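User: Last request for today: this protein with carboxymethyl coenzyme *A, please.
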Amino acid sequence: MSANKKATLTYADGKTTEFPVLGGSIGPDVIDIRTLYGKTGMFTYDPGFLSTASCSSKITYIDGDEGVLLYRGYPIEQLAQHCDFLEVCYLLLNGELPNAPQNKNFVDVITRHTMVHDQMTRFFQGFRRDAHPMAVLVGTVGAMSAFYHDSLDINNPEHRKVSAMRLIAKLPTMVAMAYKYNMGQPFVYPRNDLSYTANFMRMMFAVPAEDYKGNPVLVRALDRIFILHADHEQNASTSTVRLSGSSGANPFACIAAGIACLWGPAHGGANEAALNMLEQIGDASKVGEFIAKVKDKNSGVKLMGFGHRVYKNYDPRAKLMRETCHEVLNALGLHNDRLFKLAIALEKIALEDDYFVQRKLYPNVDFYSGIVQRALGIPTSMFTCIFSLARTVGWIAQWQEMIADPEYKIGRPRQLYDGAPRRDLVPMDKR
Ligand code: CMC
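Assistant: Here's the final one, the structure of the complex with carboxymethyl coenzyme *A:
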């Protein structure tokens, strides 16, 4: 971070205060206002963090205007084409792609940690069978800190590493267990001879009466979904993980907090909402009517899977997801899939409509990911769990980066108070 430039704040009375301007390796500069309150007695006001960089990070870079996404400098398109998910996990955690021996060692470690403590099964049994799998996942991932307390010293880099490995290795098992519990089927144990993603699909879809053999095209498609969702800089759930972790909370608790945040329909819940929306529209002939509803501010209806806080251009992940959608539907002989056709029609109309053009609203990753997951046999209620599984590596990499950062402090935003000024209490009989 270089700080050769300065920004000057000028007040109405002509007084000025200077602040350093920090430059990153790419992307916009930031004004370092850490001394603002001390120098001026004022805070900045930025609800929703529209203009606030909450930290410095070396992990992920997004250029929302150009539609660029880089993990550790590598374009998402190259990673999605040439790497598998565990290579991407290694990259996000360590900053470099693994060579062959490093990759083998990493895959071995992850593979050998996929089983969960047997008593975890009782936690699942405490939930209603019809509970939303995300409700179950938030609870059970939080409960992991009760099982793996030998690695909870956040000041010990080895403990942090062990917790990171445990989370990445066990999340697929936990997500599959949440699904099986919901389905009323027995849990399926992991198998070490399968790849990370093939193993996950087997834990989801095998039953004692019949094993599951993953179709390589479908395994690759899900692996790509994992890659595309692995990290996305300081989004709501990642900021939640960082903020939770800033108090020194253990990593399992922080990831549970991230999962809770991700569940919201404006964030990770959008792919579930997007698919539900397509089901509701039902037919290409209803697209015009639906778009009119979206444009009517009083309707409260949004085009789910469209728009993004950062991307004001086509989300690069959405392009890859549309491509994957084609591959999966072709592999399954579903090229005439009703919802895919409907999604294409909806996208075309929205991209030509002034409302969306003026607001720079483009499809995001969630617009097509639901269709792919549905084709893979994953029920809608599991979509955000899959997102949680994939994002765990990003959360844990960001958490590790924060703890190791010498500038790390507890996160403590301030506020503009506009409530009642100081007043004296009136006894009950006089109110
Ligand atoms: N449909 C209709 N109008 C929209 C949409 C949408 N999907 N998204 C934004 N707008 C309008 C919004 O009403 C506002 O209009 P106006 O200026 O007239 O008031 C304008 O576009 C700017 O929107 P905003 O709400 O200020 O944008 P934001 O940055 O606060 O919100 C968002 C970003 C992702 C929450 C929002 O676009 C949205 O709710 N999209 C639908 C949900 C969705 O697909 N979320 C997935 C995000 S990608 C995956 C992830 O990162 O989790």
